[in-house]
Amino acid sequence: MSLRLAAMNAALRAVAKPALARTGTPERARRDFERIAPLLRGPAHLREIRRPGPPPLGWLSAGPVPAGRAILWFHGGAYVAGSLRTHRGMLGRLSRLARTEVCAPEYRLAPEAPFPAAFEDACAAWGLLRAQGLAPGDIVLGGDSAGGGLALALLSRLLEEGERPRAAVLFSPWVDLTLSGASLRENARADPLLPVERIEELVDIVAPEADRRDPRLSPLFAPFRAPPPVLIQASRTEILRDDARRMATRLRAAGGRVHLDLWPDPPHVWQILDGWLPEARAALARAGDFVQTAFAETMR
C-alpha cells in the first residue's frame, strides 16, 4: 500500500464513509457527488463532445484514438447519482491509456426513473452506436459499480440476441441486488468508503417493485452465451468483493476468459482517484492494456 493510499483510506473512513451513512436522500447524494467532481482529475487536452439521445451521449477522448471503435462506459453512483461530469477525469485517462474513444451515456437515475429505466437506456445507447456504423466487435463494454452491473446486464441481453461485443472492462461491479454476497458482512468494517447499513434502503429506492433476481437488475443471475474476454478489477477489502468474485466464476462457467484483478487495500472504484493515488493510475493502465490487446486479437 502506498503512503498516499494509506492517507486516503484514513480520510475516507473519517469523513466520506460517515457522510454517506448520514446522506438523507438520493438527491443529496447526487449533489454531493457533483460537488467533488472538480477534484477528480483527468488528463490534459481532454476532448468532450455531447450528443443528444435518448439517452444523451458524452464522447471523451485524450491523445490519438483510431476511428471506428469505442468503449461504451456506464458510470457508477448506485443508480441514483453520477454523471459524465463526475467520471470524465477517469474516462479521459482510460481513453488515453486504451487509445480508444469513450462513449458515456447519461442514463436515467432513480428515484425519478427506477428500474428498468437504466437498463432501457443502456440498450438504447448500444443501438445508437450500432446506428453510427459500429459493429459489435468494434465496441468494448465497461462500467464501474452500478454501471458495471448495467454493462453486464446489457452484455447478457446482447449475447442472447447474437451480438457479441469485443470485450468488457468492469470496476467493482454491483451485480447482486439480492445482497447475498458474504463480503457485505465480512468487509463491513474493512471497507473504507461504503456504509453497508444503507444498501438495503438503496435497493428499495432503485427497484421498489422488482424481483431482485431479475437479470436486468442482478446480472449475477443472467445467462451468458459464449461471453467475450472480461477484465474485472475490485478491492479485497470492499463490501462488493464477492460480487466481483462470483461474477468471474459465472462468466468462466459460461466459457468466458476472465481476468479477475483483486487489489489488497484500495477503496471502491479507486480508479476514479487517478491523480491522487498511484494505485489508480496503475489499475487504469492495466485496463488500457486489456482494451488494446482485445482490439488487437482476432475475434473468436
Q: What would you say this structure looks like, in words?
A:
- With 300 residues, this protein is α/β, with parallel strands linked by helices.
- The protein is built from nine helices and eight strands.
- Helix 3 packs across helix 9 and helix 4 packs across helix 5.
- It is globular, with a radius of gyration of 17 Å.
- The relative contact order is 0.15.
- The model has no long low-confidence stretch (mean pLDDT 96).
Number of helices: 9
Strand count, sense and barrel status of the largest sheet are:
8 strands, mixed
C-alpha Rg, in Å? 17 Å
What number of structural domains do the residues give? 1
The CATH architecture can be named as 3-Layer(aba) Sandwich
Strand content: 5-15%
CATH fold descriptor:
Rossmann fold
Features of this protein?
single chain; 300 residues; alpha/beta; Rossmann fold; 8-stranded mixed beta sheet; 14% strand; globular
Task: Please give a quick description of this structure.
By secondary structure, this protein is α/β, with parallel strands linked by helices. The chain has nine helices and eight strands.
Write the SSE topology.
Elements: H1 3-22, H2 26-36, E1 47-51, E2 57-61, E3 70-74, H3 84-98, E4 101-105, H4 117-131, E5 139-144, H5 146-160, E6 167-171, H6 183-186, H7 199-206, E7 230-235, H8 241-253, E8 258-263, H9 278-296
Parallel strand pairs: 3-4, 3-5, 5-6, 6-7, 7-8
Antiparallel strand pairs: 1-2, 2-4
Helix pairs in contact: 3-9, 4-5
